[in-house]
Design brief:
Order of helices and strands: HHHHHEEHHHHHHHHHHH
Number of strands: 2
Largest sheet: 2 strands, antiparallel
Strand content: under 5%
Number of helices: 16
Strand order of the largest sheet: 1-2
Helix content: 40-55%
Shape: elongated
Radius of gyration: 35 Å
Length: 333
């Protein structure tokens, strides 16, 4: 339930603590039930959880005392009738008495209407998004084709338009040994070589292509759509990442590439348009020289690969060179 503190405090500044507590309980009950409050004063008293001990009816208008005298049991005591008058006074201050005898709070009714509209819009939006994902060429049930067209035109923020893929993209196979780099300052020997696995990925051949060929038509269409929207550097960077994984995980060299890796690598490429393959490879070499978790999956760290451009890092993401310098100063004499 939305709660506008300033509005509530300005409207209820004159209430004493029992009145404030009772009013809140009445509001909460109407919001929870989504229905007007009953016209039965005894039921309203039960909602407020008030007893004659808590209320002071000395300042209540005489009209409410007279009205309370005709409410409830004939044998109601003076304290009970005072409680009836107290609740009537509170209801007349903040609620509207409907012709059918029920009570409604106007502001809460408008908030309920807005909440219902937003809830319906959210459900409709989710249903349309799911339909457009799995039935991209079919109109949403009950809609004209033009509405579906409008929805598909609103999707480029999530699905970027295809970018041209360069035919000169080359895959590289490198050695990512960071032993010399760790603490020595020497450059790691990075030699580009031809990678059959990366070439297979780029040319659509090999075991990966055989596996993809068994996909359903819908899955194949989704895969082609994702591939068309990728950055021109995606395939070569993905090949290098798989080589990096294979070198550091000889026990399981085939990295389980997933859609989450696709999203992370694409986000990194979109955010860093100037990053080339050689610089990216050098950053991987520096990461190999850092104290990082060897089991960390690619999607968890590839988006932050730039953090290694200053040199290897320790387990706290601090420069290793600074740590080594401090040790030399402390223990070197």
């Amino acid at each position: 339930m939305p709660w506008y503190i300033s509005d509530y405090q300005s409207d209820t500044a004159h209430l004493n603590p029992p009145q404030d507590s009772a009013y809140r309980r009445l509001l909460e009950h109407q919001w929870k039930t989504r229905k007007p409050l009953t016209g039965d004063i005894l039921a309203l008293i039960n909602i407020t959880k008030m007893t004659p001990h808590w209320v002071d009816a000395s300042s209540i208008a005489q009209a409410f005392h007279e009205q309370a005298s005709s409410i409830g049991r004939a044998s109601a005591s003076k304290d009970e009738r005072m409680l009836y008058a107290w609740v009537l006074d509170l209801m007349n201050q903040f609620f509207r008495h409907n012709p059918d005898g029920t009570w409604t709070q106007p502001r809460l009714e408008s908030e309920l209407a807005k909440w219902g509209e937003k809830s319906a819009q959210a459900k409709d939006k989710a249903a349309r998004a799911a339909w457009c994902r799995w039935h991209p060429k079919e109109p949403f049930p009950g809609d004209a084709p033009s509405i579906t067209k409008g929805i598909t035109q609103a999707m480029p923020k999530q699905c970027p338009s295809p970018s041209p893929v360069s035919t000169n993209t080359k895959a590289h196979s490198v050695r990512f040994s960071g032993d010399k780099l760790r603490g020595s300052g020497e450059e790691s020997p990075i030699g580009p070589e031809t990678s059959d696995s990366a070439n297979d990925a780029a040319n659509g051949s090999g075991k990966g292509a055989e596996r993809l060929s068994t996909m359903s038509p819908r899955g194949e269409a989704t895969r082609r759509k994702r591939k068309a929207s990728r950055d021109a550097r995606f395939e070569s960077f993905m090949g290098v990442l798989k080589e990096y994984w294979a070198e550091h995980h000889p026990e399981s060299p085939n990295y389980p590439w997933s859609a989450r890796d696709d999203v992370s690598l694409s986000a990194m490429l979109d955010a860093d348009k100037d990053l080339g393959l050689e610089e990216f490879t050098a950053l991987l070499v520096i990461r190999a020289a850092s104290k990082v978790s060897p089991s960390a999956l690619i999607y968890g760290w590839v988006k932050d690969i730039r953090q290694y451009q200053g040199g290897p890092l320790d387990e706290y993401k601090k420069p290793l060179a600074l740590k080594q310098a401090r040790q030399d100063f402390t223990y070197g004499g």
